[in-house]
Each structure stands twice: as C-alpha cells, then as structure tokens.
Amino acid sequence: MMLRLLTRFVFASFAALLLLTSSAPAQTADALNQIKKIYVDSFTGKLGGPELREAIINDLRKNPALEIVPDPAHADAVLRGTGEIWVRAYVSVSPRATNQYPVYGGYLSAQITGKDSETLWSYLVTPSKSSSSIRQDLANQVAKRMLAALHDSTIQPSPDQPAQHLGLTLKVAGATFPAPLYQAWFVSFQQRHPRLVITYDAIGSEAGIQQLRDGKLTFAASDVPLSPARMAQMPTAILQFATVLGAVVPVYNLSNVGRDLRFTPDVLAGIYMGKIRRWNDPRITAINHHVTLPDHEIVVVHRSDGGGTTFAWTDFLSKTSPEWKASVGSGTTVNWPVGKEARGNDEVATAVASTPDSIGYTELSFAIQRELSYGTVRNAAGNFVQANLLTLAAAANISRNESSIYSPLTNASGKDAYPITSLTWLLIPESMPDPATKSVVAEFLEWMLTAGQKECSALAYNPLPKEIVNSELQLLATFKSK
Fold it and tell me: In what order do the strands lie in the sheet with 67-68?
C-alpha cells in the first residue's frame, strides 16, 4: 500500500528534474551570487525542448553580467527544466462558428544546480492569461524569476556536507498536501546519506498524528498545528516546524470550457452545501461572463479522511460564508451535506479527472500533476486571484503581519493574495531516546530549512519567508540542546 502511494504521489517528471546530475565535474558555485557563468542544459517534456532552451538562453543573454557557456565543464552552475503542455478544451470564437481552436494548459519547472549537484534555486510557472505563445511566455517567466533570484542575497546557505549516518530508518507519515515535496526532499537528503532510509506514508494529517501518538513514527506531518488540548494528549512534548506554503484550489472537469472559471466564497459554499446544483446556475454565470456553461448537474467531490487540505478549505468558507460557518463549520473532517468521497489529495484529483462535470479541492501541485483546470477565487480585497508562487508569497507576507505563525493563512487581506493558502508542518518529538536518530533528524531539519527550501518551488510550493526560517532555526537549536 505504501509503495503504491509513494509512486502515485511523486511527479515523475518533477522527480526526474530534481535528480538529474551532470556528468561534467565543473560546477563550482555553492551560492547563487557566485554564478557568473551558466550552462543551460536540455529541457525535457512536451513543450519542445530545443526551442524552449533557446528561448530561455535568449532571455538570459539580455543580462550582461551573466555568461551563457556552451559546455558544463566551464560553468559555475547548470540550469535544467521540464515542462508539459496539454489541451484544456476546444472552443469556438462565437456560438455560430464551426471551427474550434485549442486552449492550452501547462507548466515549466526549472532548477539550478551548483557544486556537488546541490540545488541552488528552483521555480515553477504556469501560462499567463495574456500569452499568445505558451512556450515563449513560460520561458520569459522563468528567466525573469531566475535573474531576480541571482541578485537576492537573503537566500539561506546550504549546510556543509555531513558525516554519514549508517543503518538508521526514519518512519514518517501524515499529510497528503505536501507529499510530492516530502518525497523529493527525502530522496535528496538520502543522497547525502546513502545508507539512511526514510519512509513516508501519505495517510492524511489526522492519521499521521494518531500514529505519532501511538509511538509508531519517528515524526509526523500535519497541515494543522496541534492545539494546546491536542498537545496535552501526546506522550511527549512536540516541536512544530512549518516547512512550506501551498495552495488549495477548486479543480473541475468541464469539457469545452477554455477560460479559468471564477469562484466566489458564496458560490463555493453553495456548491458544497448542495444549494447550487447545476453548472449554469445564475450565481455561477453572473461571475463568469463570456463563458458558456453546460446545463449539467455538478458532481461534488470531497475528502473522506481527516486532512489539513479540508481544514484550509472549510476554514476559508467559514471565514467568508456565515451560512457555511453556521451549518457546516471547519475542521479536518466535517459532516458534508453533499458529494462523493475520495481519500487524500491524489484520489480527489483522480476522481475529478475521471468524472465529467465534477468539482473538487486539492493542493495546487496535484492539480498540475493531473492536468486539471483550477479556478480563480475572489479574495478578501475583492479580486479574483489564481494560485501561483507569487500569490502564495503575497498571502504569506500579509498573514505573517496579521497573526501568529500558528494561525491559518486563509483569506489574507492583500489585493494579490491567494485566499486559500496554507502552511504545513512537521511534528517532532522533543525527546528522542536514541542519540543517533536525534542527530539525523536535527540535520534533516537544518537541511530542510536551508537547502531544501530551494527545491520546493519546482514542485509548485512556496518557500518559507525568511523570518519564519530564522525563527525555526532558533527552535532547532533548542531541540539540539535538549
């Protein structure tokens, strides 16, 4: 069961990107600001590798401080990437037109590796709404974000190469929300420790917490931090480390709808309460002008298990819909008024992908993995915002100034903030009887807060703000000292 889950959760193309290494031994940079010469490797995927590579090279050459070299042996670092493109729908220019044209979806994930193939930077972009050439648009976005990162002096340095930990196994389980990233992180960390084994069972936040409480895990993963009451139920004190930010998005399966649908909180609440039952309901069409929606019944999909993705979704609806708050409320599990069940983010995404006229909610990376359409959501400022790394960062910056790190990030007030943004957490027992286990857990946490943060954007997660990283490095020092 666990191997099946692992296979399903790791993006094949993303994992390949994170594990690619160059046969040339010349990359010498161990920080972004040391990169003066870069080699742009072949890009993989369905976007057209040679054309995409050339488009990125042309953009990067506009910066005179960066030299594009033809051989990785002469480079300080290597840029690699993978991208996919798919047809979202075939649409006509008018109701009377007989010819249809394709509307494309896609992504481009890029990564810079330096000395010892260490990841120095990563990013993922999706098509801009105004783009006429998806390949050029994605190349422009990656080049722009990369050049900005090369001038960013706030990025955390990577820890030194550690001593080897032999014969240890770390058992981790819990949240499905960050599962693709955790799988990639554990693979990267195990490359530094070839004889260390880390297993991850993506069983949901609630099940992970229960297994940690029962003493079955080294540590657990949860999208919801423990409340004081739940902390008191644990057999030992728990330190909670935020790891990354992600987005929960409304995913849907509608044929021949090429535009991203708009959703207000009231519409989402109405759908999930069973009060909006058809796609052409006036409350949906009123906010989706120029989109022809079918007179079909909406198939609602929701989680069957206890998960932080559900908590973020229902917390957002409770903050924005008084009727939802009064009748359903928020939590890792709720009494759903309508809908079919699916376990975990991956099964929700799979169910929506295979069910015409359906709607569900998943973490953004699962929507991209399953090539699903996902809508824009009206935020607290009244703007319809699509989930991406920039709008996640905007939500994090606003929320960090408004509330505690342990408070939900949903419905942040910024004009560019994506409203269903969430942190996710690792729950670490403060007391670990085995010194070797504690040592490697501490080392992983330090790596996760520094080098690991550079890998997360390639998988559509947003790195932690530097203030949170600095605070958690202090928490880590407390863990080490006990």
Answer: 67-68, 37-45, 77-91, 101-113, 119-125
